[in-house]
Every structure is written in structure tokens, then in C-alpha cells.
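Service request form, structural biology core

Requester: graduate student, group of Dr. S.
Request type: structure prediction, single chain
Budget code: on file
Notes: please return the result as C-alpha cells.

Sequence provided:
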Amino acid sequence: MAANASFPSILSWTPPPAPSQNLKVLLAYVNARNKLDLSNVLRFFHTELEHRYLPMSLGRPVLTKKQYGEYLEALTSMMTTFTVSSQL
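Core staff response, request fulfilled:
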């Protein structure tokens, strides 16, 4: 059963005191997503990003980094909050 307000998870995670460089990057990405800060979110993606929806049978077009940023901007404009959490 997924955790929710009625059934909080007993599992939680705290970053280590000296996180690896990879973990630092992940935490910075999650922080940017949680702040709905698209300019910072997009800096984590390569300039030649190709965003693909799977399965390909959906017929969705491949998006460039610019197009994906525009897509995220449209989604974000509908949100007042967004939170990535480590709760299970």
C-alpha cells in the first residue's frame, strides 16, 4: 500500500553528511523541481536532449530541450506546488 496522509510511511531517508557528487547533483535537481524553477531544472539536461514518451505506439513526437522546456512550463503553470519526496 502506498503511503499517504492516512498511512504515513515508517521509512524515511536523510542525505548523508558528505554526499557523493552524483547525489549532490540529484539533490540539486530535486530542489529545483520542488521550487518549480524551470531555468534551473533545464540546466541539468544536455543541450541535445531528446525527450521521448514510451511506448512509442502513443505516437508522441520527440521533443528537443527547448520543446521539453516549453512543455514543462505549460505543466508548471497549472501547479501551485510540486514536491518530490523520498517516502515510500
